[in-house]
Amino acid sequence: MPHLRVDVLESDLAGNEAALIAGLTDAVVEVYGPWAREIAVVRLHGVVASRWGIGGVTAVAPAPSVTFGIKEAAFARPEMIAALASGVTEAIAGVLGDRVRDGVTVEFVGTPDGRTAVGGKIS
Fold first, then answer.
1. I want to staple 59 with a disulfide (CB 3.0 to 4.6 A). Which of 51, 54, 70, 101 is the partner?
2. pLDDT beyond 80 at 28
3. Is the Cβ–Cβ distance between 8 and 64 less than 8 Å?
4. How does residue 5 score in pLDDT terms, banded at 50, 70 and 90?
5. pLDDT tens digit string along 49-102?
6. Distances 15 to 49, 50, 67, 69, 83 between C-alpha atoms, Å
7. DSSP of the chain, one letter per residue?
8. Are the C-beta atoms of residues 84 and 27 closer than 8 Å to each other?
9. Which residues constitute the domain of residue 48?
10. Would you give the distance in Å from CA 86 to the centre of its chain?
11. pTM higher than 0.85, yes or no?
């Protein structure tokens, strides 16, 4: 199951929640296929500007940071990882604007088989 956690400035997030969720889900579906729409999970976390620091100081206008939980086996397909990184970045820039594009970070966190459970069952 693709899980995306997006940390974004609260001021950028306000009013853009639905568009970000839809755009990020569409980016996942573009790579995985239509079957993934129902299992793509997007969690948006708004951070107030004074609580986001880079280099030891409060960041002025940081771009969103995405943690993308993915099955570890996906790393055997680097073209898929590249397409996901690009699609997620474009989805965010499409909603929040070009000013964030060059700073969007996407971190892929792989989960080995047998280390995820849904509804109390290992999947």
1. 54
2. yes
3. yes
4. very high
5. 899 999 999 988 899 999 999 999 999 999 999 999 999 999 999 999 999 999
6. 17, 20, 22, 25, 27
7. --EEEEEEEHHHHTT-HHHHHHHHHHHHHHHH-GGGGGT-EEEEEEE-GGG-EETTEE-SSPPPEEEEEEEGGGGG-HHHHHHHHHHHHHHHHHHH-HHHHTT-EEEEEEE-TT--EETTEE-
8. yes
9. 3-52+60-122
10. 11
11. yes
Q: Which two tokens stand for residue 53?
A: 């620091």
Q: Token digits for 47? A: 């951070």
CATH of the domain at 82: 3.30.429.10
Per-residue burial over 79-107, b = 16 or more CB atoms within 10 Å of its CB, e = otherwise: eebeebbebbbbbbbebbeeebeebbebe
Separation CA 14–CA 36 (nearest Å): 27
